[in-house]
Amino acid sequence: MTISPAMQRVLPLLTDPPENPATPNGYLDQLDSHPADHVNTGMVQSLWSSRVGASLFDHAATAARRVVGILQSPAERLHLEPGQTVLDLACGPGEVTASLARTVGRDGLAIGIDISESMLARAVDRHRAGNIAFLRADAQRLPLRDNSIDAATCIAGLQLIPDPAAALAEMIRVLRPGGHLAVLVPTVRSGALEKIGRNLPGIGGARSFADTEIPGIAEEFGLSGVATRRLGTIQWTYGYKSR
Fold first, then answer.
1. CB 156 within 8 A of CB 96
2. What's the rounded Cα separation, in Å, for the pair 7 and 132?
C-alpha cells in the first residue's frame, strides 16, 4: 500500500522506520497489537479509546477549544512559522493537529500522535490535508529522533498518561534547539484537592497537577524560559529548548 506524501516525510524523523511502511487504517501504527503494561488502561482512558468515548470527546473538545481560545492558541504559544514541523501529542480526533497544519502551511508538517485507535480513525477520516500525518504510539516512548521537531504541544492529554513526566521529557527530547513547547493541563491549588488529584491515576486513569508541577518538570528536563498562564483550573506551561 502506498503511503501518503505527508507520511513519507515522517519516516526520516523516526528512530526505527519500518522497512515496508503501511497505513491500512490511514495512520502508521508504531505499537505492537498488544500494548505494554505501562500504557494507560484506566477508566477515563478506556472511555476515550472506545467508539462511544471518541464521539463524546468531540463534544468535550468543542468546549475545551473555547477555553483554549481565551487563553491563546497553541500556534501562538509555539511561535510557529511556515514550513516547520510540529507535534500534537495525544491528538485525539485531530482538530488541533489540523489547526497547526494550517499555520505551518503546505511546506510544513503537522504530526498527530495518539494511542487510541478509535480517536485516530476519526482524525484520519476528518483531516486529509497533504501536510498532516497521524501515528499510533506511546507518549512515554516517542518513536521520533532527537532534535527532529520544531515545536510540540499537548492539550489536556498529560493527565491521562501513566508517567506524564516521561511524556514531557520525550517532547523536550525531540525538540530541536530553539524549538518551542506548550502544554495545557488541569491543575489544582496546593492542599487537599492536590492530594486527591495525585491519587486519581489509581482510581480512574486521570489526574490533576499542582500549579507548579508541570513547570518544574519542564525545567528539570532542560526547557528554558518556562512560563505559565492560568485560567480557573487549567494552565498553560510553555518555553523553549535552548540546546
1. no
2. 8
